[in-house]
Amino acid sequence: MNRTSRRRGLNLFDAFVLLLVVAVGLVAFWFIRGTGAANSSSGTPVAVTYKVELVGLPADIRDSAKTGVAVRDGVRLQNIGTVTEVSSTNYYLMLGDPVTGEVRRSEVEGLYNVTVTCEAVGELRGSRVMIGEYMIAIGQQVAMQSPGISGVGYCVGLDYTEIAS
Known about the structure:
This protein is about 15% helix and about 55% strand.
């Protein structure tokens, strides 16, 4: 077959590549733009109380935590409430004995688990609790900053009540 006699039209492989490029572009647009559900501000106003457990903090940071101060998200730097209570327990590790097979709780001296309780006014959007544009949920990692205490922990408790309009 002669090179000049080949047809230069759109073949099946070209159509597949074109379709793949369009699909990747649409998926990228969807991820960048989002679904719009989190950006709508038509939620039900709620009073939110949540607890964040910060693990393995030294005593000086544990003792410097204060109630009544504002808390902000350490990533987006948005206000996510006010500290209402601070409690602490000894930090521990679960260690296994290879000989007997027993697992024992072993406290680590000088380190503490600090539970910070915060209150905020947020919105209930569908099944999501939002504080501004920050979604809070049990089990979610929270990077928090406030005067006296900062750290990364997990939300271990969440309660909300609707605010009468």
